[in-house]
Fold:
Amino acid sequence: MQIPLQITMHEIPQSPELEAHIREKAGKLEEFHPRITSCRVTVEKLDRHSHQGGQFRVRIDVRVPGKEIVVNRDHNEDVYVALRDAFDSAKRQLEEQVREARGDVKLHEAAQHGKVARIVRDEGYGFIETADGRELYFGRDNVVHPSFDQLAVGANVQFIEEAAAEGAHAQAKRVTAGKHHFE
Structure:
């Protein structure tokens, strides 16, 4: 990075461990884009009187030549989960920026719809029932919105089916829950 990493924390006590974690995550972003000029990370504890645990907002501003990438993640009860989700999003956007700069054309597959059939939270994976009755595996890292921990069995989801390697089953990528219709 041309400009040193800037870390700002609001309503959070100073923590060398948390700052080291942020520095490590920010350093790894350079693996996905070689020309990051600056990176600012802001972590804020939100004031939620009706909620026992803390809620966190993470904002990451990353500048690369010709573009600024901004990531906002709100309302995660664990600051490390909020940071993981925000940095994963920044990583995906940096990878996309590199593809665009190279002129690579990304073919977007058609999204499919289904319902969450099962979730194994402690191991970080689940299964989606497709419209044609098949079940597709998805992992924690394949969930875009809301976070994996916020998904519920029976939730309508949209996803991209990815063919698997020989002998393996297909899996769901880019899983999003919301107002999707399941037929």
